[in-house]
Amino acid sequence: MALVGVVTGSRTDAPYVQPCLDTLRELGISNEVRVLSAHRQPDAVREYALTARDRGVEVIIAAAGMAAHLPGVLASWTNLPVIGVPLSTSELEGMDSLLAIAQMPPGVPVACMAVNGARNAAVLAARILALKHDKIAQALEEYRQRLQEA
To answer: Please, what are the domains in the chain?
Structure first.
């Protein structure tokens, strides 16, 4: 059972999301990865968001470039925390994505990372999960210690 759902809008986003997946693995956090486009597959995005909690997902990380509607669309269909990762996949080098994710309407919050901030998305997800899961809290503390020693 995956605690974190990692969703990207395109298969070409994989290299940008890999630091997130590596960090989740390092922290021992189970995850599932899906490629779903908010624009090309709106019904699939809706279904994913509506069924995530039933599958055991507790946090969703959504990475998207350009218009970057994926995090907001997911957040509109679920009460789970959604963390948006803007990607630098356009001529605007991610500023379009950053603004799209950061400017959500009232009542539909999305936590917004820096452009290409996939690693921090994983750490924020771990912090959310650590409130409930002692094993993740311990792994997160060990991770923080390693950062201090580096």
So the answer is: 4-149 (3.40.50.1970)
